[in-house]
Write a structure and sequence with these properties.
Layout (H helix, E strand, L loop, with lengths): L4 H13 L3 E3 L5 E2 L5 E2 L1 E3 L8 H19 L4 E5 L4 H11 L3 E4 L12 E2 L7 E9 L3 H12 L3 E10 L3 H10 L3 E6 H10 L5 H12 L7
Parallel strand pairs: 5-6, 5-8, 8-9, 9-10
Antiparallel strand pairs: 1-4, 2-3, 6-7
Helix pairs in contact: 1-6, 2-3, 6-7
Amino acid sequence: MIFNKETAEKTAELLLQINAIKLNPSNPFKWASGWNSPIYCDNRLTLSFPAIRNYIRDEFSKQIEEIYGKPDVIAGVATGAIGIGILVAEELGLPFVYVRPEPKKHGRQNQVEGFLQKGQNVVVVEDLISTGNSSLLAVEALKEAGANVKGMLAIFSYGFDVAEENFKNANVNLNTLSNYEHLLELAVEKQYITEEEQKTLQEWRKSPSTWSV
């Protein structure tokens, strides 16, 4: 869900400007899942651009307070959202923890790293939502650690139906700074892609697991 349309358009433009999002319908990327994709998103690049990371930090911070009120803790999903999560926690003057994909195999075998007390209100920060599976595993780990997870904010979502269904089934509220629809509208407007390429990109999202050029 998009909380602010202006923010969605601005975020999409910034991600395109620094090639954090690349659109290449004629020569698709291959995802780790094996899917062919005309889009590749690496939001970790934002950390290398101070003005952009600060914009994302500020928008996250504002939306967290407006949607949830001030939580007790900010949690980042490893590894992509650790950097931006720390910036948001710093901006809000809050403690920060991060969640590993799985518990460590040694030592204390933590999955949630940092100091977290049972019953604390937590908002989760994520960089990218595809199917939502890994993000929701992080939410589950936080809940198992005793946290009261208020919801999640992410920089960008592909807007897959499966992700919407997964978050709905898990009863987790998700908001994103930008998403695929706003990205495509802006990419055509700013001539990053043609209207014909926009149609190709729209077709891909209908069935990303079977799509090919």
